[in-house]
């Protein structure tokens, strides 16, 4: 079930990152400050990179079987995308300053996801 969640979320988040990237490049240019546009693009990039790694993790779950470390990675990457990229999108579009402190929490989720993938590699590859 975790592989299915990872795969579907990755596919949706990856497609959404393309749409949001286009929106940022064409819909926001000239409407927001350059520094905010750069922040928006950072959110898009992190969302795409982590959507791709989440897709990879879904295949690792199918190949290696149910591993707690990979399941943790799935939820850490999903939380990272929602918190890191989501808070940056919200910050740019609404300028609500309270969203800023949420971004590092998403970054920590990304780090936890990568550590979990590392642990899975040690468990399965040696």
Task: Walk me through the structure.
This protein has helices at residues 2-28, 34-64, 68-94, 102-125. The chain is mainly α and 126 residues long. The chain has one domain (2-125). Helix 1 (2-28) runs antiparallel to helix 2, helix 1 packs parallel to helix 3 and helix 2 (34-64) packs antiparallel against helix 3 (68-94). It is elongated, with a radius of gyration of 16 Å.
Contiguous helical run count: 4
Biggest pleated-sheet summary? none
Number of E-type strands: 0
Give the C-alpha Rg.
Answer: 16 Å
Helical residue percent? over 70%
> What structural class do the secondary elements suggest?
mainly alpha
Number of domains: 1
Strand content: under 5%
Model regions low in confidence, pLDDT < 50 over at least 5 residues:
none
Distance between the termini: 26 Å
Q: What string gives the helices and strands in order?
A: HHHH
Shape: elongated
The mean pLDDT is: 97
Characteristics:
0% strand, mainly alpha
Kindly summarize this structure in a few lines.
By secondary structure, this protein is mostly helical. The chain has helices at 2-28, 34-64, 68-94, 102-125.
SSE layout and pairing:
Elements: H1 2-28, H2 34-64, H3 68-94, H4 102-125
Helix pairs in contact: 1-2, 1-3, 2-3, 3-4
């Amino acid at each position: 079930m975790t592989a299915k969640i990872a795969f579907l979320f990755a596919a949706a988040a990856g497609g959404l990152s393309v749409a949001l990237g286009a929106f940022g490049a064409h819909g926001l240019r000239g409407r927001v400050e350059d520094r905010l546009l750069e922040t928006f693009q950072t959110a898009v990039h992190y969302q795409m990179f982590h959507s791709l790694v989440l897709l990879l993790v879904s295949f690792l779950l199918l190949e290696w079987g149910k591993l707690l470390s990979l399941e943790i990675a799935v939820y850490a990457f999903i939380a990272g995308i929602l918190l890191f990229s989501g808070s940056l999108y919200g910050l740019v579009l609404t300028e609500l300053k309270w969203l800023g402190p949420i971004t590092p929490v998403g970054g920590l989720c990304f780090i936890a996801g990568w550590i979990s993938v590392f642990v899975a590699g040690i468990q399965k590859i040696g």
